[in-house]
Design a protein that fits this description.
The complex is a heterodimer of chains A (160) and B (562). Chain A has 4 helices and 9 strands. With 160 residues, chain A is an alpha+beta fold. Chain A has 2 domains: 77 residues, ACT domain (Alpha-Beta Plaits, 2-Layer Sandwich); 73 residues, Alpha-Beta Plaits (2-Layer Sandwich). In chain A, strands 5, 6, 7, 8 and 9 form a 5-stranded antiparallel sheet that branches. Chain A has a 4-stranded antiparallel sheet with strand order 2-3-1-4, with helices on one face. The longest helix of chain A is centred in the middle third of the chain and has 13 residues. Chain B has 22 helices and 20 strands. In chain B, helix 22 links the parallel strand 19 and strand 20. Chain B is α/β, with parallel strands linked by helices. In chain B, the strands form 4 sheets. Chain B has a 6-stranded parallel sheet, with helices on both faces. Classes of the chains: A alpha+beta (160), B alpha/beta (562). At the A-B interface, helix 1 and helix 2 of A face loops of B. The structure holds thiamine diphosphate (TPP) and magnesium ion. Chain A: It catalyses: 2 pyruvate + H(+) = (2S)-2-acetolactate + CO2. Chain A: One of its GO terms (molecular function) is acetolactate synthase regulator activity.
């Protein structure tokens, strides 16, 4: 099963290597990884999506907590959380295709961030599913390049 | 006061209570060596950096204090890697200081540059590259704190040459708090209550002790539990000595080369108290067959060890000593009303297993049996020596036939199984305890892996005794070839070997050779009485096997017994 782990770490050299090494050294795979500083000076938040059964995920979480540079690990799969990913796409949009692509842009609430005579660069955010759906829709027009950020996620507000 | 990085390092080591540093110099640590004579630290100059790290490790295992090792950059640093991994696998507190090329050259493939922090990331508890001299004091404080607290382990500090010479104001932190590191020592009281309940109710309990009992100095507390509730005790290789071998409740080691009684008892128990052990594959054998009917209680300071290999019914994250103390407080008040809960039938069964198939060998004829050598050492030293081992059959025979009476007296590379470990580790232990008898039970193969440290032992007048169980083979591998590879003894016969007696003499140590079973005792006694390092080369039965043996992948009840 796919899990989203949110990991609060000391922002110091080598931290990424420690986390990544922990996955590779144990034969676990990272599906996506995202790191950025938090509001607290010196701390970064990593969001890692990974796949594994319960036992593997439990081991991953414990191993992550064991790293001396880790403050907190939350498996967001266990709680109500929102998840978003951003993607940039370079799509073929020559001639007659252009209108159709723009219609899809509308439906998916993408933004056109760059325009040239024969192609468009689109920006879109959403869940992984949404991005995947968009990619498969646009494939027929010709996708020349894709860049995705990997998921970021956050627990929802307190609720019953 | 302003000090250089090198001075800060040495002054901080002093403040950490370090007495001995095992090291080997080079260009990247010459500034540290330049200052060394000004500090009250004893330095042991080894002959190979692997010797330094194993000696620091042996010192730490024998004392419980942090061992310290100092080496130069590049090859000096890489030569310690095997020893770092050895300490990591067995949770031994050591601090390794490596020199590094000057900071402006880092990343330039400079002379004797390696990324030792990168190389050792997965075999240290933590490691540091210190780029600012202002960080050095804090880093050293943290390194000692990390190495010795929680689940102990090696911590490496990589110190560039220019940082060693730079000046800064020195202030050594008195206390330390790390927001990202807070090991749990005290057990959750609810879990302790649950354990107390199952201990009271169990009909067929067993204690399966591991290295955590030694690391947390919990032998006494463990003995209280075993004796108050009349529970049989088995232990892993790492925990030998945590419970006295002459106690009737002692079953011996369990696992691949464990005793019949220990393996049968753990397989038939209804309650397993796993205390500071980690269900290693050499212990459990085929995991799906392991202790299928038992309730498992697992106490470990490292949460990652719990539920890793076997499902656990009552997990307790805690230091073994804190846990056992809390358990005693819970159990003791009601002990009088509730006399040790009817384990008579169980204990009779366990006793029968012990009697049925004890560890045995047959010292008949003109050839010396290796087991007899170890048993003789045990008798001569009354189980009170510090025994280190190499790896292979020698290690297993030492574990099986030496009757340990106290913790920290068996020093062996368990997790990594590092040949070459025993002798330098013995040097480390002997540095810590100059007056105790320290004996390396060695194999003829392993001893050649760090034999150069004979010069160190002679130089520092460390009267370490090396007893080689010389079978002319890489015996343990040969045993596997015999049993599972149709006796295809490929690359395990050590046809050409040095004359170990002459070798000892060449280094200025003493050497003996024994080939006659009748002489074993007298020669060992003579060797042990000498005040210098000694090699005793005991020529033993070439194809003797370690038994019992659980073939890899089999259930631990499926022992080959001969
Ligand atoms: C550094 C290292 N290399 C290889 C091995 C694999 N190995 C395990 S036991 C063994 C044989 C050791 O021979 P010896 O020291 O003579 O001991 P014996 O088994 O004969 O008592 C070997 C090669 C190891 N454990 N460590
Ligand atoms: Mg041998």
């Amino acid at each position: 099963m796919r899990h989203i782990l949110s990991i609060l770490v000391e922002n110091e050299p080598g931290v990424l290597a420690r986390v990544a090494g922990l996955f590779s050294g144990r034969g676990y795979n990272i599906e996506s990884l995202n790191v950025a500083p938090t509001l607290t000076e010196g701390l970064s938040m990593m969001t890692i999506t990974t796949i594994g059964d319960e036992a593997i995920i439990e081991q991953i979480v414990k191993q992550l907590r064991k790293l001396v540079t880790t403050l907190k690990v939350v498996d967001l799969t266990d709680v109500k959380a929102v998840e978003r990913e951003m993607m940039l796409l370079r799509v073929d949009a020559e001639g007659s295709k252009r209108a159709e692509v723009l219609r899809i842009v509308d439906i998916f609430r993408c933004k056109v961030v760059d325009v040239s005579p024969d192609e468009l660069v689109l920006e879109v955010t959403g869940t992984q599913d949404k991005l995947t759906a968009l990619v498969s829709l646009l494939q027929r027009y010709g996708i020349k390049e894709v860049a995705r950020t990997g998921s970021v996620a956050m627990r929802r507000g307190m609720q019953e | 006061m302003e000090l250089t990085g090198a001075q800060i390092l040495l002054e901080s080591l002093r403040r950490e209570g370090v007495e001995v540093v095992f090291g080997f110099p080079g260009g990247a640590v010459i500034d540290i060596y330049d200052q060394l004579p000004n500090y009250p630290l004893r330095h042991v100059l080894v002959r190979h950096e692997q010797g330094a790290i194993h000696a620091a490790d042996g010192y730490a295992r024998a004392t419980g204090k942090v061992g310290v090792c100092l080496v130069t950059s590049g090859p000096g640093a890489t030569n310690t890697v095997t020893g770092i991994a050895t300490a990591y696998m067995d949770s031994v507190p050591v601090v390794i200081i490596t020199g590094q090329v000057p900071t402006p050259l880092i990343g330039n493939d400079a002379f004797q540059e390696v990324d030792i922090v990168g190389i050792t990331r997965s075999c240290t508890k933590h490691n540091y590259l210190v780029k600012e001299v202002g960080d050095l004091a804090r880093v050293i404080k943290e390194a000692f704190y990390l190495a010795s607290t929680g689940r102990p382990g090696p911590v490496l500090i990589d110190l560039p040459k220019d940082v060693q010479t730079r000046l800064t104001e020195y202030k050594y932190p008195k206390t330390i708090k790390m927001r990202s590191y807070n090991p749990t020592y005290a057990p959750n009281p609810k879990q302790v209550a649950k354990v107390a309940e199952v201990v009271r109710r169990a009909k067929k309990p067993i204690i399966y002790a591991g290295g955590g009992v030694i690391a947390s100095e919990a032998s006494e507390e463990l003995a209280w539990l075993a004796r108050s509730f009349d529970i049989p005790v088995t232990a892993t290789l790492m925990a030998l000595g945590c419970f006295p071998a002459d106690d009737p409740r002692w079953l011996g080691m369990l696992g691949m080369h464990g005793t019949y009684a220990a393996n049968m008892a753990i397989s038939n128990a209804d309650l397993i108290l796993a205390i500071g052990s980690r269900f290693d594959d050499r212990v459990t054998g085929k995991i799906s067959e392991f202790a299928k009917n038992a309730k498992i209680v697992h106490i470990d300071i490292d949460p990652t060890s719990i539920q890793k290999n076997v499902p656990v019914h009552i997990p307790v994250v805690a230091d073994c000593k804190s846990f056992l103390t809390a358990l005693r407080q819970t159990l003791e008040p009601t002990l009088a009303e509730q006399p040790a809960a009817g384990h008579e039938a169980w204990n009779a069964k366990v006793a029968a297993w012990k009697e049925e198939k004890p560890l045995s060998y047959n010292q008949e004829g003109a050839v010396i049996k290796p087991q007899y050598v170890v048993e003789t050492i045990s008798r001569l030293t009354k189980g009170e020596a510090i025994i280190t081992t190499e790896v292979g059959q020698n290690q297993m025979w030492a574990a099986q036939f030496y009757a340990f009476t106290r913790p920290r007296s068996f020093i062996s590379s368990g997790g990594l199984g590092t040949m070459g470990f025993g002798f330098p580790a013995a040097i480390g232990a002997q540095m810590a305890y100059p007056d105790r008898l320290v004996i390396d039970v060695a194999g003829d193969g392993s001893i050649q892996m760090c034999i150069q440290e004979l010069a160190t032992a002679v130089c520092y007048k460390l009267p370490v005794k090396i007893v080689i169980l010389n079978n002319g083979y890489l015996g343990m591998v040969r045993q596997w070839q015999e049993l599972f590879y149709k006796k295809n003894y490929c690359a395990t016969c050590l046809d050409v070997a040095p004359d170990f007696v002459k070798l000892a003499e060449a280094y200025g140590a003493a050497g003996f050779r024994v080939t006659d079973p009748a002489k074993v005792e007298s020669v060992l006694a003579e060797a042990f009485a000498l005040p210098c390092p000694v090699i005793v080369d005991v020529v033993v039965d070439r194809e003797e096997n370690v038994a019992p043996m659980v073939p890899a992948g089999k259930s631990i009840t499926e022992m080959i017994l001969v």
